[in-house]
Amino acid sequence: MSQQKSPRQKKTWLDLQAEVDTGGKLVMVTAYDAPTAHIADAAGVDIILVGDSLGNAALGFESTLQVTMAMMRHHLEAVARALPKAFLMADMPFLSYHLGIEDAIRNAGELVRAGAQAVKLEGGASREPVVRALVDAGIPVMGHIGLTPQSFHVLGGYRVQGKGAASAEQLLEDAKLLQAAGCFSVLMECVPKELAALVTETLDIFTIGIGAGPNCSGQVLVFHDVLGMHDGQYPKFVRKYMDGFNQMIIALSRWSADIKKGIFPSGEESYSLSVDALANLPSGNDPDLRQRRAGGRAKKARKT
Ligand code: KIV
């Protein structure tokens, strides 16, 4: 087989594991389009996730359940076109891995062909067969346990998971099973910090936390949350590093005010005709037309 050289230094999951094994922490953030992927990559994040949070964060749905394979693919392709150096992953959306192994492989394969280096899917022990099949098909898988938003109806809402002794034990068991099935990493969402620390300590593969305390191998947040880009409710585990929503409103309002005052665009922000072209332009030198234009402006000014 001929050796293919990558034109860019793209991270692999092995690089990520090596980073953790040498004492580093991993940074993962979501992105749903090329500009957000460029920003995330320029900030040096390790992993970009085209998450199914696409549904709530970017498409205006109330949950992730409305997100389809077609939507995931469309947004993943946009992110992939940004050619990020970060490890690029995609979520398998609701019902894309529940209807049979063959269907799951076809769907995961579609995401890989669209640019994903790995997929993430929700669930514990019951996902063991599908994880094995995907890994066998050459597709790296990150497991997602704890609060699994695609099952929020079954869970009775978006709640912290693994708080009691039995559910904590079950979560630890799920993590071990996912590792045994071949997952290269496990993500824990909304899990008590002590339990997430125990899982991280127990597993050989790296963990990623969201609302799972500081002792995971890495952390993930939704792009729009970390930059404060909406005026909705933020979960307790989010730290906003920018008031993006209000800062963008301020910037757009300043632009709008400049237009209303007639000071945008300026001469420098406009294109000009050459002196020759201006002189030869029939309407430019037509005194009648000029007068009519001036008259029209005066009439408009009287009306207001
Ligand atoms: O879709 C998503 O954004 C997620 C989060 C847990 C990061 O899965």
What does this structure look like?
With 304 residues, the protein is an alpha/beta fold. It folds into 2 domains: 13-240, TIM Barrel (Alpha-Beta Barrel); 249-303, no CATH class. Helices cover 45% and strands 13% of the residues. It has 14 helices and 8 strands. The protein has helices at residues 13-21, 34-42, 54-57, 69-80, 101-113, 128-136, 152-155, 165-181, 193-202, 223-226, 244-261, 275-280, 282-285, 287-303; strands at 26-30, 47-50, 87-91, 118-122, 141-146, 185-189, 206-210, 218-221. An 8-stranded parallel β-barrel has the order 1-2-3-4-5-6-7-8, surrounded by 7 helices. α9 (193-202) links the parallel β6 and β7. α6 packs parallel to α8 (165-181). It is elongated. The model has no long low-confidence stretch (mean pLDDT 93). It binds 3-methyl-2-oxobutanoic acid.
Q: Which helices and strands occur, and which strands form pairs?
A:
Elements: H1 13-21, E1 26-30, H2 34-42, E2 47-50, H3 54-57, H4 69-80, E3 87-91, H5 101-113, E4 118-122, H6 128-136, E5 141-146, H7 152-155, H8 165-181, E6 185-189, H9 193-202, E7 206-210, E8 218-221, H10 223-226, H11 244-261, H12 275-280, H13 282-285, H14 287-303
Parallel strand pairs: 1-2, 1-8, 2-3, 3-4, 4-5, 5-6, 6-7, 7-8
Helix pairs in contact: 5-6, 6-8, 8-9
Bound molecules: 3-methyl-2-oxobutanoic acid.
